[in-house]
Design brief:
This protein has helices at about 15-25, 70-95, 100-105, 130-140; strands at about 1-10, 40-45, 50-60, 60-70, 130, 145-150, 155-160, 170. With about 180 residues, the chain is of the alpha/beta class.
Length: about 180
């Protein structure tokens, strides 16, 4: 697995990066971890709080976890637990749908807000060409309430979102 470590107000030591890599090895129980599997680890410290963000980009999809605790070790353990919960929650869905590109990778076993309308963060994305079911799976694995993708059939950009009643909605953009 290729690790990319970034930090803010925090020094990442070799021992810490080795510890994180060792703890991330649990992923091998759930899916095939190849040498080119990417893992981004972002660690920051602010006012005594440690925030750790883990993102794993694999054939099984994108997994993301973010935790904030006073103790970095607790934050890391909680983030890893959250990744494991995401895998368990979505593994059955992958196996049921038999999505060959995704299922074969699995082994069978605090921002401040203001009163003014101000853009706080800007993010640029490159929508992936996916089917609707794959987009829903990616959204669930990331823990987001919406996901932007390019529909494979129509090649148009689309947004799938989670509704309050538990269902899903789809917004298709005509180009």
């Amino acid at each position: 697995m290729n690790y990319t470590f970034t930090s803010k107000n925090f020094k990442i030591t070799d021992a810490l990066s080795a510890k994180i890599a060792e703890k991330m090895s649990f992923l091998k129980r759930y899916f095939i971890v190849e040498d080119n599997t990417e893992c981004h680890v972002n660690i920051s410290e602010e006012n005594g709080w440690h925030k750790i963000e883990l993102m794993v980009f694999s054939k099984a999809g994108t997994l993301r976890s973010e935790q904030r605790e006073r103790d970095l070790n607790i934050a890391l353990d909680n983030a890893l637990d959250k990744l494991e919960q995401q895998i368990n929650r979505n593994k059955d869905r992958l196996n049921r749908r038999h999505k060959s590109a995704l299922a074969t990778a699995f082994i069978q076993t605090d921002t401040k807000t203001s009163e003014k309308d101000v853009v706080v963060r800007t993010k640029t994305i490159h929508p992936l060409p996916l089917e609707l079911e794959e987009a829903i799976l990616e959204m669930e694995m990331l823990g987001h309430t919406f996901f932007i993708y390019t529909d494979q059939e129509s090649e148009n950009t689309a947004v799938v979102y989670k509704r309050h009643d538990g269902g899903y909605g789809l917004i298709e953009i005509e180009e």
